[in-house]
Amino acid sequence: ALMAAGVKGILAVGTDLFHIFAKAIMGTTIHKKLGNVSVKLAIAYLLGSAGGTFIGGAIQKGLYDKDPLLSEAFISLVYAVLLGFLGFYALIDFLKSRKAESGGDHGAHGGPSSIPPLGMKVQNIKIPPMISFDEDLGGRKVSGVIVAMGGVVVGILAAIMGVGGGFITFPMFVYVFGVSSMTTVGTDILQIIFTAGIGAITQYAIYGYVFYSLAM
Q1: DSSP 3-state assignment of 129?
Q2: Contact assessment for residue 132 and residue 141, using Cβ atoms and an 8 Å cutoff
Q3: How far apart are alpha carbons 59 and 17 in whole angstroms?
Q4: Cα–chain-centroid distance for residue 2?
Q5: How many Cα atoms occupy the beta-carbon half-sphere of 20 within 13 Å?
């Protein structure tokens, strides 16, 4: 939206990261009161995403220094590919869920406490340290190393696209890590504070790529 309004790509990315960082603080406060935040999951995720923001920021600045138009084209391409893939994946999952319900099958996608098949496989990979979460649903565990690796991917994309990474984190947590949707929402908002904050300050603000009045 900012690019469509005439803001150059790298400035739109830095400004959006800065505004998301501030907005996520209030969201985390609300979800913490609701009990939807897993601090252990967020810390493991942040170990990866913080490093990822430096990689993504370096890629974005390198493209911008080479050609500003190349930077904007790259941002648009990443958005189109990612949103297209996630939208298609969500549609397929929805159709599978409808088919399972109509057939009386309430297994992998049948309820809020169910774990997708991929999530079950990932949780069976016992690479220490193991992180426990969703205690109110009987308790689940996932490797902190795998969570951190997922954080690296999201950190890179967040720094390139100027987002907190929530629309990538949500399907990753639910479908890949097997985290319940409510815990995912609260934990994601907590990690956004730091992922977006680190990306905005260390990769964009110090180079003058944050439009502060627009962010406010």
Answers
A1: coil
A2: yes
A3: 16
A4: 20
A5: 28
Determine the average pLDDT of the residues in 118-146. 90
How far apart, in whole angstroms, are the C-alpha atoms of residue 94 and residue 203? 37
- What phi-psi label fits residue 46: left (phi over 0), alpha (psi between -120 and 50 degrees) or beta? alpha
Q: Which tens digits make up the pLDDT trace of 46-72?
A: 999 889 988 988 998 899 899 988 888
> What letter does residue 178 receive in the DSSP assignment?
-
Q: What is the torsional sign of CA 6, 7, 13, 17?
A: negative
Tokens read off for 188: 């994601």
Burial class (CB within 10 angstroms; exposed 0-12, middle 13-18, buried 19+) of 81: exposed
The Cα–Cα gap between 57 and 12 comes to: 13
Q: Evaluate if residue 101 carries a pLDDT over 80.
A: no
Q: What is the pLDDT of residue 152?
A: 93
pTM: 0.74
User: Which residues 6+ apart lie within 8 Å of 115 measured at CB?
Assistant: 108, 123, 140, 178
Q: Is the peptide bond before 171 cis (omega within 30 degrees of 0)?
A: no
In degrees to the nearest 10, what's the CA dihedral of 131, 170, 48, 212?
Answer: -130
What's the pLDDT score for residue 108?
44
